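Hi Y.,

Following your request, here is the sequence exactly as I used it, all 343 residues.
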Amino acid sequence: MGSNPLSQLPRLYQTVRHLEARQLWYLGRYRVLPQRHRSPCKTFSGELSLRRNISHRVGFEPPVPQCDSIVSDRGEFTFVGKTVHLGWPPNWRMADKEDRLWCYNLHYHDYIWGLSFQEALILAESWIDSCKFQHGAASWRPYPISVRLGNWLKYFFATHIDRCQAEPRFTERLLESITTQTDWLLKNLEIHLLGNHLFENAVALCFVGAFFDGPLAETCAKRGLDVMQCELDKQILPDGGHFERSPMYHSRCLYLLADLYNLGMEKVMPQLEDYLLRMWSWLQSMCHPDGQIALFNDAAHNVYLSPVSLSAYLSRLLQREPPHSSGAFGLSDSGYFGWTGPD
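Below is the corresponding structure, written out as tokens. Let me know if you'd prefer a different format.
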């Protein structure tokens, strides 16, 4: 016999009572509003133009450790402890058979930093050719789009801008795809999820606003900054910790803020440096003597940039030594107390 639907009401109540009103509103909106009204469109097509002088203080740091070990010469991709042979360029349709988290990692393109420019060009073009927009596809979820946009913009239009400008046909295709992905992201911010997902969405919009000119770029900059201003106060606790209390997610958010600072975003977000310093100090306290993060609250090693590399990036950006962490510490807002010292 099927269970009585009324018996599920207490569980439903315990689930939704913790959600914010805006989460409930957007959950309903995304379920009720026909998807075709939120699909990518050509409204802004052709209006993203690359800025002539994209300035950044120092070179961007890859988002994950050992990017060159993720993809083998034989076209084997390794994520979350699983290796799958997709060939080169990757067979994107074959990848759809894998679980959602594995597919997400594939579509982040974090590993682009371990490729040569020519290999990265082939990767991006094959993605554009094979991963056309499709509702529900892992490649077009807002979170993977946000991560991928950050990687594409920093890799192609900052780190390898000269090589990119020498490939006008590729650059034109890249801009067209970025426009479509950005338009979709704007319509589907993950307000129903909040947390690090919405944080990642907002940073991606800020990146678009920093790298491009035009109406779409201006819309992205305003929307991204509005969300960031709101989420920073909510997500970063007074002691500098991320509100999810996970050293891993904390590291990712700190890395993203460092990238925004690298692009000069402190001019429109004056408090950005203060957040960086507080979060940096928190991370130093939450690392073991071997330099790795403490494994609390959905945390794992080698998922994001290591604390040592992240600290070196911040030192170059802020032109100061890492915060010193020794002896007893109390992070009362995060609920962590401990002692750090030599091993």
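The beta strands are 49-50, 76-79, 82-85, 212-213, 327-331, 336-340.

Thanks again,
Q.
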